[in-house]
Specification:
The complex is a heterotrimer. Chain B has three helices and three strands. Chain B is an alpha+beta fold. In chain B, strands 2-3 form a two-stranded antiparallel sheet. The longest helix of chain B is centred in the N-terminal third of the chain and has 18 residues. Helix content of chain C is about 40%, strand content about 15%. In chain C, helix 2 packs antiparallel against helix 3 and helix 10 packs across helix 13. The chains are: A alpha+beta, B alpha+beta, C alpha/beta.
Chain lengths: ~475, ~100, ~475
């Protein structure tokens, strides 16, 4: 397959639920995980005679997102009815924005395979979410808790050309939503979802070819796989002189393939028209500008600052700033012990590795930044060796919240080797037992020094402070 | 002039979920054609420089905004009582055999 | 007692001249005797009315403060929600639906101690001109029971005409309050769009609908407007204007006022109708009006415009009736598709189905520009023309209909029924307030009404003219024969 002749063109539509207290057009509670049909109102289940009233906070959050992505917040936007019949949609129309969304344009910077790239947004629109349909063997049940929850749909331009770019873009959008605290961005809970449009064309072509739409990917890795699958499928069709039909697919993670949902012929006619129950959303420039003061340090700015202040590489910096809570954790830990390199290592490698199986991040655990800081300080001071520290870290994961100092105190094998007299004796013994090695070292074979160190470590079960061991060995050898 | 065929009428019925029994079809079809020809009258109006009416009341026109205070105003038991069928706190519907929507 | 105005009833109750229980018993008795032949009510709240009345009497005895509507018996069109009572919209779909919340209208009536008698008949989902589209039963015109009362608020109009309530509420999307009021010889008022909250009114044409009062006398309309025409935070289209307050005709228009008449547009009127209309205009002249001609020939397109917009909005407003969350779910339904298709097939009458299909059509891909968007543009033109007309006058006079109430099944053709709305839809398309007042009787005794359209948000001015008109005429004092006077 000559994939090199082909270019993929990808666009992403991201739906992010806003974390307001109440729903977009009604006062019922916006909260995940409660008993079914407990967070409802007559408006959100569309009883006859009910009317929508717009949530101020949802508007503010949409504005904040628009500002954070340098979009043009529209001072005049309006809502439309999008008609389709489905049990989880109480009115059998969604209230959304099509022709006049609240934000137009915008761009973000993402880190893709070692380099920074800029991606462009087309629009951001406010709309309400549907309820949830739960499938059982012989029937289905509808839970309307989610019906009416506010969402912003973030539509990108078709400006991505690889699965990796799409994933990096999605992650960058997620970071911004996270930093702004406008959404929980939780893929498992459904507060962050994406649909992707994929097409391919020959390199050099300017026109876009037929695209397919893929839905139902609930992780970044699914997103990547689905896109790769579709690109391959399109190319294969074109190369065998076949055509690509416009269609909608859903990603099936079990079989790792896209499955047809709807062809163009079955495509819905949504019959969008302006919702007569709502007036236009009119903002003043003053109101929009007022939201600027609520913008926190954004991911990109924090990334730049991490490079500057902490001397991290771009790659590391992106890693630590992707998640606001992780970045906060990092900075707090650095405050505790002031060794950026070690903090980076312990958070990104040591602890990350230990939490991988649990599927959580260190900031989600009970381990406090001050504990990580303390651990690093103890290593720096020589109180414990690097090796012991690893064991201490294992214990910290088992008993989160217990400080390293307490752990070390309670475990004699973690105690630093205190008895210098005893250490001197051990060193002497090792030196005496290996005269040839000592000779070799004296003759310039520095590498053999490590062997002696190893022997000492063996007899102290790794708890002897390395600097002391080195010092004592050298002193001992001098006299031989 | 819109061409109303029986096929287009059936398509329309499908879109808006109005099941039309064969007995009623002829009558509906005839009435529909008659009404649509009447509303064709609008095509003779010159609306070149006119914007569609967004909202009727002059001097007003901004949607009011509601404070983000939450309150669940519909009791679940009452809601499930009103529902034709419910089970385990959910509104019950027959199984979805095919994916009808997104 | 039943012939007293609402204002007078209220006064007598407050003064202790009559008890609320006596009022309640009088009206309940009247309903029991007259309604079987008329069919105006769908449901009478026998028990609750007695409770409401007893409570009022206790309040008065306890010298507690009483609201503006204390002692006034009121009927409600059955497309407005009353908590704990059925809202059927005269549809099979909702025949078992009990509303779990009050419409803002009802809340306001209760806050001011109005006595709510029951729910009145209508064309199904307010779609119709004769009340014959009700899935329950027909309602008869109290002036001649072979005739329709008009629609869609036929039940409310007949109730007031037969004095089975002092005031009734209807909803007006294209003339649904004014047409039946005129056919039944009573007064009615459609406020400026947004003046009365639509929260709790089952929506038909969202940008056109307004709840409005019906009574024999203008002063009763004004009284109740004071109570119910207030801003509502649950309705985004509600106007933030201060509560309605009646004004004095003498103060405002003592020096004269101007009435616009679109003579050219009225050229198709039958002779008798025209004669009565001319007489009404003469009366206005005698009240100090100057009559000017206004050009509203654009109204030639009003019915088309109206039917495109209202059905488009209705097709989406009625989409929620799907048998899933409430209403009647067809027991033949085995699959999800059948839940939708069969529940809606069984639940909706022919006119409702027709309008939903038309509404879907005018919004559908490929047709939306030519129909829906075009109609919204023509609507804007109509608004512009009315603005031009209103720059020359304070109000504009129209007949309500081509003639008086016709017989049952006389007009079966949907289109011919739509054309009955010719003189009324303009007010809904432009959002202006409009009242329809009794303007006399045809030679066969059928009542006729005429309309006065006012400027947006000038509801009080308009009603003050209405009150003055009723001081100069006596049509509104006539009552149908039969039943106690």
């Amino acid at each position: 397959m000559s994939e090199d002749n082909w270019e993929a063109v990808i666009g992403l539509e991201i739906h992010a639920e806003l974390n307001t207290a109440s729903k977009l057009f009604s006062s019922d509670c916006n909260r995940f995980g409660d008993e079914p049909n407990t967070n409802i109102s007559e408006v959100s289940v569309a009883l006859p005679g009910t009317l929508p009233v717009l949530n101020k906070e949802a508007v503010r959050k949409a504005i904040q997102f628009g500002l954070a992505t340098q979009g043009e917040v529209q001072l005049w936007s309006r809502f439309e009815r999008k008609s389709y019949f489905y049990p989880d949609c109480p009115r059998n129309y969604q209230i959304t924005q099509l022709e006049f969304p609240i934000v137009k344009g915008g761009s973000i910077t993402a880190f893709v395979e070692g380099e920074e790239k800029r991606f462009f947004l087309n629009r951001v629109q406010l709309e309400d979410d549907a309820g949830m349909l739960k499938h059982f063997s012989s029937f289905a049940g509808v839970d309307f808790n989610r019906a009416g929850v506010p969402m912003i749909e973030i539509v990108s331009e078709a400006c991505m050309h690889s699965a990796k770019e799409a994933v990096a873009y999605a992650q960058a959008i997620r970071s911004i939503l996270d930093y702004l605290d406008v959404s929980d961005c939780n893929m498992e809970e459904g507060s962050f979802r994406f649909d992707v449009n994929v097409s391919v064309r020959k390199k050099g072509e300017t026109e876009l070819r037929t695209r397919s739409e893929i839905k139902n990917m609930n992780s970044f890795s699914n997103l990547e796989q689905a896109i790769l699958f579709e690109i391959k499928r399109h190319i294969a069709l074109y190369e065998s002189s076949d055509v690509v039909d416009q269609a909608t697919f859903r990603w099936d993670p079990d079989t790792s393939r896209t499955i047809l949902m709807r062809t163009k012929e079955d495509a819905q006619d949504y019959r969008y028209f302006p919702d007569p129950d709502l007036l236009p959303l009119i903002l003043t420039q003053k109101e929009v500008d007022a939201e600027k003061q609520y913008l926190p340090e954004l991911p990109l700015d924090r990334e730049r600052r991490f490079c500057r202040e902490y001397g991290l590489s771009t790659q590391q910096s992106y890693l630590f700033t992707a998640d606001r809570k992780l970045a906060d954790y990092f900075e707090e830990t650095v405050k505790m012990c002031d060794n950026v390199k070690m903090v980076a290592n312990w958070i990104a490698i040591e602890f990350a590795g230990r939490f991988k199986e649990m599927g959580i991040s260190i900031w989600e655990s009970e381990i406090q930044p001050k504990d990580v800081g303390e651990l690093i300080s103890m290593i720096q001071e020589g109180t414990i060796t690097g090796k012991i520290a690893k064991s201490v870290a294992d214990e910290m994961v088992k008993t989160p919240g217990v400080s390293p100092k307490e752990i070390v105190k309670s475990r004699p094998e973690f105690q630093p080797f205190q008895d210098m007299e005893k250490l001197k004796k051990i060193v002497e013994e090792v030196v005496l037992e290996h005269p040839d090695t000592v000779e070799a070292i004296k003759n310039g074979r520095d590498r053999s020094f490590a062997f002696l160190v190893g022997q000492v470590m063996k007899r102290t079960r790794g708890s002897a402070p390395p600097e002391q061991v080195n010092k004592l060995l050298k002193e001992s050898m001098k006299s031989k | 002039m819109a061409e109303i065929t029986e096929e287009s009428l059936l398509h329309l019925a499908k879109l808006c979920r109005i099941h039309c029994s064969p007995e009623k079809r002829a009558e509906l079809f005839r009435d529909f054609q008659q009404i649509v020809s009447y509303i064709e009258l609008l095509s003779e109006v010159d609306t070149e420089d006119v914007d569609p009416c967004n909202y009727v009341i002059a001097g007003h026109g901004k949607t009011p905004l509601r404070e983000d205070a939450s309150s669940n105003t519909l009791d679940r038991e009452l809601f499930l009582q009103i529902a034709p069928e419910s089970i385990a706190g959910l509104v019950r519907v027959p199984t979805i055999l095919t994916s009808l929507k997104e | 007692m039943h012939s007293l105005s609402a204002c007078e009833l209220h006064r007598r109750f407050i003064a202790g001249e009559v008890s609320a229980r006596e009022i309640a018993d009088t009206f309940l008795d009247r309903i029991r005797r007259l309604d079987p032949a008329l069919g105006a009510y769908l449901e009478v709240f026998e028990e609750s009315v007695v409770e409401q009345a007893d409570r009022l009497d206790r309040k008065r005895q306890g010298k507690e403060s009483l609201g503006l509507l204390a002692g006034v018996p009121i009927a409600i069109k059955d497309n407005i929600n009353i908590k704990g009572e059925k809202t059927t919209c005269a549809s099979k779909f909702l025949e078992n639906f009990v509303a779990p919340f009050d419409a803002t209208l009802i809340r306001r009536i209760r806050e001011e101690d109005g006595i709510i008698l029951g729910k009145t008949n209508l064309d199904e989902f307010a779609m119709g001109t004769t009340c014959e589209n009700s899935s329950a039963h027909i309602t008869r015109n109290p002036w001649n029971t072979n005739n329709v009362p008009g629609g869609s608020s036929g039940g409310s109009a007949a109730t007031v005409a037969a004095e089975m309530a002092s005031i009734a509420f209807g909803s007006d999307t294209g003339g649904s309050i004014r047409l039946p009021a005129s056919f039944c010889g009573i007064s009615s008022f459609k406020p400026t769009y947004g003046r009365i909250s639509r929260y709790g009114l089952v929506a038909f044409g969202s940008s056109l609908d307004q709840i409005g009062p019906m009574a024999y006398r203008c002063e009763d309309l004004e009284r109740i407007m004071q109570v119910v025409a207030v801003p509502c935070e649950k309705d985004s289209t509600s106007l933030p204007d201060p509560a309605f307050s009646p004004i004095s005709f003498e103060k405002r228009f003592g020096d004269g006022f101007t009435v616009g008449v679109p003579w050219q547009f009225l050229e198709g009127l039958p002779n008798e109708t025209r004669a009565l209309f001319d007489r009404a205009v003469e009366t206005l002249t005698s009240m100090g009006a100057k009559v000017v001609e206004v050009d509203l020939s654009i109204l030639k397109y009003a019915v088309s415009t109206y039917y495109i917009i209202c059905t488009a909005e209705a097709s989406t407003n009625l989409a929620r009736f799907d048998g899933i969350r409430y209403g009647v779910r067809s027991d033949r339904a085995q699959t999800l598709d059948e839940v939708y298709d069969l529940s809606r097939e069984d639940g909706f009458g022919d006119e409702v189905k027709r309008r939903i299909m038309l509404g879907t059509f005018v919004l559908s891909s490929g047709y939306q520009d030519a129909y829906y968007r075009k109609a919204q543009k023509v609507r804007q033109l109509i608004i512009n023309k009315f603005n031009e007309a209103f720059s020359k006058c304070d109000c504009i006079a129209f007949p309500t209909s081509l003639g008086g109430a016709f017989t049952f099944e006389e007009k079966k053709d949907p289109l011919s029924l739509y054309l009955e709305d010719l003189y009324t839809v303009g007010a809904n398309l432009t959002g202006v307030p409009v009242m329809a007042l009794p303007s006399g009787f045809l030679s066969d005794g059928r009542p006729l009404g005429f309309q006065l359209f006012g400027k947006q948000r000038h509801d009080a001015e308009l009603l003050s003219i209405g009150r003055a008109f009723q001081e100069a005429t006596d049509y509104h004092t006539k009552r149908p024969k039969g039943g106690d006077k």
